[in-house]
Amino acid sequence: MDYLQLRVLPLLALLASLIYFFYFQDSPTLFERSDCSLFPYNHYWIISKRIVTPHGVISGAVEVKEEKIVSIIKEEDWHGNLKKGQIIDYGEAVVMPGLIDVHAHLNDPGRTEWEGFPSGTRAAAAGGITTLIDMPLNNFPSTVSAETLKLKIDAAEKNIYVDVGFWGGLVPENAFDANSLEALLSAGALGLKSFMCPSGINDFPMTNSSHIKEGLSILAKYRRPLLVHAEIPQDSESHLEDGENDPRSYSTYLKTRPPSWEEAAIRELLTVSKDTRIGGPAEGAHLHVVHLSDAGSSLQLLKEAKSNGDSVTVETCPHYLAFSAEEIKDGDTRFKCAPPIRDAANKERLWTALLEGDIDMLSSDHSPSVPDLKLFDEGNFLKAWGGISSLQFVLPVTWSHGRQYGVTLEQLALWWSERPAKLAGQDLKGAIAVGNHADITVWEPNVEFELNNDLPVYLKHPSISAYMGSKLSGKVMSTFVRGNLVYKEGKHAPAACGAPILAT
Q1: Checking DSSP bridges between strand 312-316 and strand 286-289, what pairing results, if any?
Q2: Nearest-5° angle of CA 165, CA 168, CA 170?
Q3: Domains (ranges, CATH) in the chain?
Q4: Are 263 and 294 in contact (CB under 8 A)?
Q5: What is the CB neighbour count within 10 angstroms for residue 170?
Q6: Using one digit for the tens of pLDDT, what is the confidence trace for 445-482?
Q7: Where do the Amidohydrolase-related domain residues begin and end (predicted)?
Q8: pTM of the full predicted structure?
Q9: Where in 105-252 does DSSP place strands (E)?
């Protein structure tokens, strides 16, 4: 018996190895954790007549193996290459790199009644967003140290349906403390964020150009960006004339935050952004102006800074491109945000700047709260909490409003994927390219839908979104994160298997 065992066992082991090699390696294999995906195979092909790649829109197939894209084949070059693996044929639907939203407030930990990682990332997945970079405030405590960053990472564990990275905060208490800032960046913060006006959050006070200069000098060592909310309060009372200050009127709120606030902040920023030029004391750092609203002098200043060699970029948001001040009804505080939504002429100039490349990218600035803070009954724009709730809707909103300007699929991928990936330092994201993470969104550009109670909305408080009640085009069908099909036609994967993204 011992002799037979000695002879047979090695043969059985060899046979098992052959079976594994020929069957499991050459045929689609199940994920070890099939609950991460609604399509539980780790080797498959995605086919479409419209695949958005860095080299244009092609008809063909994307091969996914485990979490990466391993090949991209044009239809005319298939030659039987699709025999192995499962195939998902999306026909005429658009297959595009997953959106990367570099500006979202998920408020976790500490204010999860406002949103939270589970609801926010489910909304992101349903909207074709595969990567979120979470802001360091509105959660509690604010993320301004290595210790508070760890709280956020711990809160995200097993609670995120898409990949999530984290900005740290630049505030007066850490701006001149190099050890504290370096510890925060070494702990994985992808960069820093600061406010040049009161943030509305007590433990996240505003900074000035001196703080920002110090922050840039530290960021230069790590080659990471500083994101800035660029508004400096001016004398807003002078903009309110007697008899024209009804707090229920949006025009009243608009007068309290004129374009001069943005212009003043950007003028001050550009006194230190020159340090980021090649050969400058902060070379390697980068300055990014978030949610630009003013398409006038503020934008012109940024254009001049870029032409002078400053390492500067700027984003705007879909709500500035979709809405105009003239359309906002009295008391509808869903539309309150900072900087404010300005007039229709300004909106047109923002579109022009985006199409001409003067605005680099888009972000949601998803900033929810509990409905009570919006003061719907009172309708007071001056007292209501500001912030547009938008995370699930940004792709169809951008497409619906952009079609009249001739926006292309390649431009959408540039604004929502490629350039945000670069800002966040994510070399393996932002494009459908061999070797990249298989972060992919599939959507139908011509399918119209209404944002009403019949549509599944995954935001914690849909009622506060300014987009509810809109009719949009561009319905997201499927979202893949690192090869996992995390969302498909109203259904999410059973488990939240998104990965925290930490800088190294």
Answers
A1: parallel
A2: 155
A3: 99-426 (3.20.20.140)
A4: yes
A5: 29
A6: 999 999 998 999 999 999 999 999 999 999 999 999 99
A7: 94-486
A8: 0.93
A9: 129-134, 163-166, 168-169, 192-195, 225-229
